[in-house]
Design brief:
The protein is α/β, with parallel strands linked by helices and 182 residues long. It folds into two domains: 139 residues, Rossmann fold (3-Layer(aba) Sandwich), CATH 3.40.50.2300; 38 residues. It is 53% helix and 14% strand. Helix 1 crosses helix 2.
């Protein structure tokens, strides 16, 4: 259960990050320590939080919708947390690990596996929440769809066909609207 000080900190954070995009967070831990703490912040509608403690539960959470950030508690999960991180690594979802000073080798291994960031206990809750939003922003930037290469080639060929037929204006409509191209 969250203390009065932690609830006060969450109210301040709620005010600080109001208006920021909505994200979905998956907290992977055995007990509900971080889940309950972060759940108080969910009421502001900036994020939705799911909790899982096994690969089966993680798969179930992925079935519910898109996960933007994963918070992985290595203090509790220990080596199983690294196994989970290896399994979800190919999904390109930012992972933030939480650990203590006794298991630094797990933190190092997690960073080698591509963890977005690593926090040591005791941690600064404000910094953790800021990193969660930062990781979500970075994921959304990476996930921005680009115009597929095949479509660019098709448009170039169509433009060339119109240009050969003397329809320069029509050909320009199929070319990219790039400021560098004249």
């Amino acid at each position: 259960m969250a203390s009065a000080l932690q609830i006060q900190q969450l109210k301040w954070i709620k005010h600080k990050v109001s208006g920021i995009m909505s994200i979905t967070l998956l907290v992977v831990e055995l007990n509900s320590k971080f889940y309950e703490l972060l759940k108080h912040h969910e009421s502001t509608r900036e994020w939705r939080i799911y909790r899982a403690s096994s690969l089966k539960e993680i798969r179930h959470c992925f079935g519910r919708g898109v996960i933007d950030v994963i918070l992985l508690n290595l203090v509790e999960m220990k080596r199983n947390g690294i196994v989970i991180q290896k399994k979800i690594r190919k999904l390109s979802i930012p992972v933030i690990t939480i650990n203590n000073g006794k298991q630094l080798s797990l933190s190092i291994e997690g960073m080698k596996l591509g963890a977005f960031d690593d926090f040591l206990m005791p941690l600064n809750l404000d910094a953790l929440i800021e990193k969660i939003f930062e990781a979500s922003k970075q994921k959304k930037i990476k996930a921005t769809p680009r115009f597929p290469l095949i479509n660019r080639f098709q448009n170039a060929m169509i433009a060339a066909t119109f240009a050969e037929a003397g329809e320069a204006e029509m050909a320009r409509t199929f070319l990219p609207k790039d400021k560098n191209v004249k």
